[in-house]
Amino acid sequence: MIGQAVLPTPELVFEPLLPELVLVVFAMAGLLYEALAKRTEAVVHLSIGLVGVVLAGGTSLWLWDWDGPATVLGDAVSADRFAVLARLLLLVVAALGLLLGHQYFARSGDEQRGEFTPLLLFATSGMTLIVASADLILTFLALEILSLALYVLTGLTGRRAANEAAMKYFLLGAFSSAFFLYGVAMAYGATGTTKIAAMALALTGTGEAQALAVLGFALLAVGFAFKVSAAPFHMWTPDVYQGAPTPITAFMSAATKVAAFGALIRVLDVAFQALAWDWAPVVWGLAAASVVIGSILAIAQTNVKRMLAYSSIAHAGFILTGLTAAGSAGIRAAMFYLVAYAAMTVGAFGTVMVVSGRGEKRTRIGDYTGLARTNPIAAALMTLFLLSLAGIPPTAGFIAKVNVFSAAIDAGYWVLALIGVVTSVAAAFFYLRVIVLMYMQEPEPAAPSLTEKVGIGAENSATAILAIPAAATLLLGVFPGVIVGIIRDASVLRW
Amino acid sequence: MMLGPSLPEASSLSPLWLVPAVPLLGAVINLFSGRRLGRSAGWIASTSVGAAFVLSLWLVIALLERSAESRVHIQHLFDWISVGRFAVGADLRLDVLSATMILVVTGVGLLIHVYAIGYMEGDRRYGRFFAYLNLFVFFMLLLVLADNYLLLYVGWEGVGLCSYLLIGFWFEKTENASAARKAFVTTRIGDTLMLIGLALIVAGFGSLDFGAVLGAPGDTIAKGTATAISLLLFAGAIGKSAQVPLHVWLPDAMAGPTPVSALIHAATMVTAGVYLVVRSAPLFELSGVALTVVLIVGLVTALFAATCALAQDDIKRVLAYSTVSQLGFMFMAAGMRFYTGAMFMLVAHAFYKALMFLGAGSVMHGMHEETDLQRMGGLIRRMPITGWTFVVGAFALAGVFPLAGFFAKDQILEIANHTGRTWIYLLGTLGALLSALYIGRLVFLAFFGSPRSEAAEHAHESPLVMTVPLLALAAGAILAGPLLSTSAEGTLARVLEPVTGPVPHGEGLPTLALSGIATAIALGALALAWWVYASGRVEWLTLRERLQPLPRAAGSGWYVDRAYSTVFVNPGAAAARFTANVFDTKVVDGLVNGVGTGTRRLAAVGRLLQTGFVRSYALAFLLGAVGVLVWVGTRL
Lengths: 495, 636
Hints:
- The complex is a heterodimer of chains A (about 500) and B (about 625).
- Chain A has helices at about 20-35, 40-65, 80-110, 115-130, 135-155, 160-190, 195-205, 210-225, 235-245, 245-270, 275-300, 305-325, 330-355, 370-375, 375-390, 395-410, 415-440, 450-455, 455-480, 480-490; strands spanning about 70, 75-80.
- Chain A is mostly helical and about 500 residues long.
- In chain A, a hairpin with a 4-residue loop joins strand 1 and strand 2 (about 75-80).
- The radius of gyration of chain A is 22 Å and the shape is globular.
- Chain B has about 625 residues and is mainly alpha-helical.
- At the A-B interface, helix 6, helix 8, helix 9, helix 11 and helix 16 of A face strand 1, helix 26 and helix 27 of B.
C-alpha cells in the first residue's frame, strides 16, 4: 500500500483563516515600526493594533455567512459560526486590552513598550486560531502561540513581581504543554488521526480503542484545565494575575478563558462526543473543585488582584458546570457565560487598574475604603462588576449562572448545581465586602485622592473605556435575549 | 448577521415602539442634564409627550383604517427571557383597547405636562420633576402596550415607583415622605398577590402572552384555576386603583405636587386596575365568581368613598376620595361585563378629574398653597377661567346632561337596571346622588358665596401656561360624552367590541326614564348643595356640629386608617422589632458568623498551600493529573 500512496494535497481555501492572517500582518507591522522608526509614538502603536483588530473583526463577521466547506485546509480549520462568535468576543477583549494598556503605559512613566501591541496581537491570533482549530496538532500550535506571547506580556514591565510571575507561568505552562501533547499522542494512538472530525467518527461504535482514547482525553483535559485555571491546576493563577501589569491581567483573564474553553468545547462535544459518559465525571470533578477552591480561598485574600484571580478560578468552575451537559445545551450556557464573564472580568480588572494608580501602588483591598467619596465613578463601576461576578440580578452574571445551573440540572447533575449555588453564596461575601468598604466607610484621612496621582485626564479616558464592559454587563443582565439568538446560531458545531 | 432587535415587516404601524421610547428619551435627557437645562426641562418633557401623542394619534388612525377584525398589531422587539420552552418577548400590542389607553395617557399627559411648566416654576428640583414625570409616562405606556403579563408587570411596578418618587417629591416634609412610603407599601400588598397570579398563569398556560392566555382560557384551565388567577389579578387592581380595602393610600398621596395628583392619581395610573380587569376579561368571565367580586368591591368602594368625600375640608382630599369612588363605578361596570362602559367612564373621568385637580392646583397657586375649603369662597370672581372650567368639571362629574359624566354614569346604571340587578341600580343611584352632593359642596364652598379669608379676597388668576390646559380639558369634558357615547351603536362601544365583546342587553325601565331620573338626581343634589353651602341661608358649620359624630367619622375615612394601625401596623412593628433585635442578632447572626468564621479558618489553611514556590505548584499539578488519570482508570 505504501508504495502506491499519493500524498493528498488539500485544496487551499484561506478565507476562514483571514482574521488570523490580518492579526499577524498587523503584529509584524507593529514590530517593523518599532524597529525602523526613529522615534516611535504610542498612539501609532495603538492605531496599528486597533485597525488590525477591527479588520480581523470585519473578516470574522463576513465569515458568519460563510457557505463554503465546513472545514478547510485539510480539515484543520473550521469555518463555523461558533468560531466566528468566539473570535468576535476575543477581538473585543483584545481591543479593550489595547486601550487599557495604552492608558497604563502612558501613566506609568515606564519607558515606552513598543512590544506591547505586537505581542498582544500575536496572543490574540493564537486565541482566535485555537477556537477555529479542527486538528489537535493545530490546537497545540495555537496554544503555544498564545502562551508564549502571554509569558512575555506578563513580564513586560520588568518589575520584580512581573518577572517572577512570567517565570512561574512559563515553567508551569511548559509542564502542562507536555501533558497536552501526550494526550494528543494517546488520542492519535486510539483513533489513528488528530483531526477532530475524524476522531469523532473513529470513536463511534468501537470498543477496543476506547480505553486509550479516554486516557488521551484525561491528559488533554489536564492541559486545558491548566489554561482555564481550573482547580487543582490553578496554582499559577493568583501569582501571575497579581504580578502581571493589570491591563494584561484583564486581557488574559478574559481572553485566555474564552480561547481555551472554545477549544475544549470542540474536543468535548465533537472529538469525544461518543464518550460523553466517560468525560462528564472528569468535567464534573474539575468544576466542583474549582468552584469550591476558588470561592473559599478568595475569602482569605487581602489583595484585590489576587482575590479576582481566585474568583476567576471559581468562574472557570461555573463554566465547566455548564459543560457537563453535553451538546448544544451545554455549549449555549457556556458561551453565554463566557460573554458575560469577559465583560465583567475585563471591567473589574480595568477598574482595579484605574484605582491602583501609577506604579500599581494601591491594590490592597483596604485601599478601596471610602472609594465612593474619592472616586464615585470608579466605585460605581466596581460595584456593578462585583455584583455581576457575584451573580446578583439585574447583571449579566446572574443570567449566566442561571443558564449554567439549569443546563447542569437538565443533564442530571443537580448535586453539582447545588455545590455551585452554595459556593456562590459564600463567594458573595468577598465581593460584597469590597462594596461595603467602598460605600459604608470613610476614606482614610491620609489616602490621596486619585486625581492627584493620575491626573484627571488619564483617569477619565480609562473610565470611559470601562463604559463598554459596564454597558454589556447591564444589557446582558436586563435583556439577555439580545444575544440568545446569536448564541443559538453559533452553538451548532460544523464538522 | 442581525445584531439589533429584529423589526417586523414594514407597516404603517411599525413606529409603535417609538410611542414609549420618546418619553423615555425625555426622561433620560432630563435626568442627566435637568439641572443645566433650567426651565427648558419642562418644555423638553412636554415636547416628548406631545410627540408621543401625535404619534399615537397617527397610529390609531392607521389602526382604525383597517377592518374591524384585523385591528391588532403586535410588534416583537426582541426576545427578552428564554428558558427552555418558556419564553417572554418584549412585545407590544396595539389594539383598540390599548389604543384608547395610549391616547388618554399621552393626550391628558401632555396637557398636564404643559400645566406643570407653570406650576412647578421656581422649584429646586425642576428638571428632576419632569424626568420623573416622563419616566412615569414611559412606564404607563409600557403597561398598556405590553403584549404579555410580564411586560405589563414591569410597567405596573414602574408606575408604582414613579408614583412613590413623585408623592414624596418634596421629601423634606416628613408627612410627604411617609405618604409616599404608605402608597408604596399598600400597593405592594396587591402587587405581590398579582405576582402570584402571574405565577399561576405560567403554571396553567406555560406562557404569559395575551394571545395564549386570553384566546380561549376555558380549553386549558379549570374554572377554579380561573377564579384563583382572576382574584389574584384583581387584588393587584385593588391596590393600584385604590379600592376598598386598600384605598387608604390615595388620600394621603395628595401630598405630592398637584400635577402629579392629576396625572397619576386621577387620570392614568389608578385606572391601570380597570384596564387590567378589562384586558383579562376572558379569565374573569370563565370564573364568573370573580366578576361578582369585582362588582361588589366596586359598589362598596363607590358608596364608601363618596361618603368620605362629603366630609373633607381639604380640596384635594375631596377630589381624592371622589377618584376612589369613581373608580368604584368603573369596576361596577366591569363586574357587569359592561367593559365598554368601564372604558368610557375611564376616558371621561380622565378629562374631568384631571381638569378639577389642575383647577385645584390653580386655586392653590393663587392662594399661597391654601387647600382648606373653609378659608375659600367667592373665588370665581377672582379667577374666572379656573372657576368656570372647574364648574364644567364638577357638572360633568355630577352627571349633568350633556357632559361626559352624564353619559358615563347613566349608561352604567342603565345596564344595572336592564340586566335585572335592581339593588345595584338603586345603590348605584345613591352613589350618583352622593357624588353630585360632594362635588356641589366643593364648588359652592370654594368658588361661590363670599370670601372667608384674606387670601381668598386677594387670590389671582394663574398664568396662561396653566389656564390653557384647563380650557382644553374642559372642552374634552364637554365633548367626550356626545362624541364617544356608549349606547350600543355609539362610537367607542363599536370600536372596542372586537376586544371587549358586545354590550350586555336586557329589559328594564325605558332609557329615557332612566336618563330623566339621573338628571333629576344630579340637578337636585347640586341645588341642595347650593342651598346649604352658598345661598347664605344655612349655617353649614352649625349644621355640621349638630350632626356630629357622623361628619367627623366620615372625615377621617370612617377610622379605617386607625383600625389598620391597631390591627396590622402595630403588631407588625412589634414583630419586626422582635426579629430585628432578638431573632436576627442572636440566631441568624450567630449562624452566619459561625459559618463565616469556619470558612475563614478553612481559607487560612488553604492559603498555606499557596507557598509561592514553583516546585510546590508543579507538585500539586502532578498530583491533580494523577488524580484525574486514576479516576478515569477506575472507570475503564
